[in-house]
From TrEMBL:
The gene is txl1. The lineage of its organism: Eukaryota, Fungi, Dikarya, Ascomycota, Pezizomycotina. Belongs to the thioredoxin family. This is Thioredoxin-like protein 1. Residues 111-133 are annotated as: Disordered. Residues 1-109 form the Thioredoxin domain. It holds the Pfam family PITH.
Amino acid sequence: MSGTVEISSPAQLSTLLSSSRVVVVNFYNEGNTSSKAIAPVYDQLASQLARPNRVTFAKVSTVQQAQIAQSYNVTNTPAFIIFKNNQKIRTYSGSNPQQLSEAIKDLAAEAENEGGGSGGFGEAGSSGSGGWRGAALPRGYGDVTDQVDVRGLDLLNSDSDFGGVRTLFESSQPASLKKGKAAATGSEGNKDWVESDVDNQLMLYVPFTSTVKVHTIQITSCVSGDEEDDEAPVRPKTIHIWTNRQHNLGFEEAEDIPAIQAIELKPSDWDEQTATAKLELRFVKFQSVYSLVLFVADGEGDSEKTRIDRIRFIGESGEKREIGKLEKIGADD
């Protein structure tokens, strides 16, 4: 099957989701300017990446198929929902062709390379139900980053010249890992990461759309590794973590409130290939979590800049989120 499939009934969509490993659905409105603008990009991706029974591209008119749109709580167009093995794994809204293209290409490559078994699920650097990961999943746990409520994210002391807070939860592989060390220094101009501003501290507030159990936190930091450059950004070193706060903490406030856990990362904790470290949590302390505060107290070395490319949360999700609570991860602030 090549090109796109125009969906004319709920039954047709259901059959498609059952017959193809990956299905990308474009919800559009014929009268919407943004829907019209991104349509050629979507059609081009379909012509390049569609594979019979593996990767299928579909379109749903929210006007003609209002029932389908309502069932997935699509209210704004264009919207793109990606399904894998008949499960909804990702939702994007708006007309950002680059982000959509990268996400679909990653999934298409994975679907193409997978055999009839488990394929690349759970491997470091793979795209799974929670997107790209820099480390393998611990047995019995999954990626719950899609439970992050991106609408409530808050990041203090970040440099506005770099990506916003939602960049940390992009589902795609960090651009620096694709392009090598040159990109890690910023020379490629694609700054899809976060750097601290006036000093090397960062304070991140992360609310969730459901109660989660957090087993591990994966942090990716693609620094250049140039020890002679005192101004080059460095990786986080000491990280303090709080649970179930109603809002972010101030830097002075963090000194007065005991953290649930403090972790000091060593250079050996960082995987050389994926630039990712795993924060092993005291799991019993993170059983019913609806928000986290992560305080990067300092970084490796003497640099005043700390860099983080991605954060992934590994554990178990609690009460199932209502359809429609999914938000686009990685939207510009």
